[in-house]
UniProtKB/TrEMBL annotation:
Residues 330-341 have a biased composition (Basic and acidic residues). The lineage of its organism: Bacteria, Bacillati, Actinomycetota, Actinomycetes, Kitasatosporales. This is Alpha/beta hydrolase. SUPFAM superfamilies: alpha/beta-Hydrolases. It comes from the Bacteria. Gene3D superfamilies: alpha/beta hydrolase. It comes from Streptomyces bobili. The keyword Lipoprotein does not apply. InterPro entries: AB_hydrolase_1, AB_hydrolase_fold, AB_hydrolase_sf. GO terms for molecular function: hydrolase activity.
């Protein structure tokens, strides 16, 4: 059978050892703000984008092995980790712009984007704004597909969230919350799969500046009704771009049904479900996650973007847009009520 552009025969990877110094957090000042990032390895660029309240540290276990065959860049998004936390624009579009500028300063012209949760929304937005710089998309429990999201995040979007987050730092509260987490795990609740990581995110908000940045970021993508940003209306533009969706079937933050909706809306995408995993499948089974990322980047060709083809897709529009409403159309109608950033 003849090789297709997206299914080339696997090539033997060139492995290199990653030095400890490569994994340290570095900084670049962009537009007057300090941006933190980790960068390691050599080879095709692989950008790891964390979720809300998280940082590049979430990828720490994966970076050394991925960097044996790739140049891995893992930024701390503005307002997160060791990056500055100004009163600024924390929309997914602004994050995509900031990522472009950071990659430009590092001499990275194009890359495969791996985005988790909010980072998945940023990756999709980057691919929409800068398709010529996007080689592949790997979306992990990504936001920006359906309205549903964990009720706790909807509550934090309400007025008074600063007080609620501050209360979690009071003496004794950490113990009480820890007991509740253990109970959820004993009861085998889906939230119990994600609670330890979510508590770690709360611990990463030690001061008012950090909490303010977290809330501003959250309110850019979530309100009391759920997620307010969507890419469903433009997912057809990923046609021809290798795309893989990775999801835990017990995700308590972004339900796994969103994975199936995104898979249907993104032509030619690949879907991999991690059974028993929650919102952080790359923590639950890092070996499988790493293997999938390496196999996907090795066996697919980078997207071949052209201005004429992009223009043609835009003119044709979303397939079925003029058809009579059905289940998929209702989902898109719901999506159209949200921001199409």
């Amino acid at each position: 059978m003849a090789d297709t552009p997206q299914h080339r025969p696997a090539r033997a990877p060139r492995l290199r050892r990653v030095g400890d110094g490569e994994l340290q957090v570095r900084h670049r000042v962009l537009h007057g703000y300090r941006r933190a990032f980790r960068m390691a390895g050599e080879g095709p660029a692989l950008v790891l984008i964390h979720g809300i309240g998280d940082s590049s540290a979430t990828w720490a276990e994966l970076i050394p092995d991925l960097a044996r065959t790739h140049t891995v860049i893992a930024p701390d998004l503005l307002g997160h980790g060791a990056s500055d936390k100004p009163r600024a624009d924390y929309s997914v579009a602004a994050y995509a712009n900031g990522l472009r500028d950071l990659l430009s300063t590092l001499g990275i012209e194009s890359a495969t984007l791996v985005g988790h949760s909010l980072g998945g929304g940023v990756a999709m937005q980057f691919a929409y704004q800068f398709p010529e710089r996007t080689e592949r998309l790997i979306l992990v429990s990504a936001g920006g597909v359906g309205r549903e999201v964990n009720p706790g995040l909807r509550l934090v979007s309400l007025p008074g969230a600063h007080l609620a987050l501050s209360a979690l730092r009071l003496p004794g509260m950490r113990l009480q919350v820890g007991l509740a987490v253990r109970l959820m795990r004993l009861l085998d609740a889906d939230l119990g799969q994600d609670a330890p990581e979510l508590l770690t995110l709360v611990d990463a908000l030690p001061d008012e500046t950090s909490r303010n940045a977290f809330i501003r970021t959250l309110r850019a993508v979530v309100d009391w009704r759920g997620q307010v940003v969507t890419m469903l209306d433009r997912c057809y533009l990923t046609e021809g771009m290798p795309t893989m969706l990775l999801w835990g079937d017990r995700d308590s933050v972004v339900p796994v049904r969103h994975a199936y909706g995104a898979h249907e809306a993104m032509p030619g995408s690949r879907l991999e479900i991690f059974e028993g995993a929650g919102h952080f499948p790359f923590h639950t089974d890092p070996a499988r996650f790493r293997s999938l990322v390496e196999e996907f980047t090795r066996t697919t060709a980078p997207a071949d973007w052209s201005r004429d083809r992009w223009r043609g897709l835009l003119r044709e529009g979303r397939p079925g847009a003029g058809a009579s409403p059905a289940a998929g159309e209702r989902n898109l109608k719901e999506a159209s009520e949200r921001s199409a950033t």
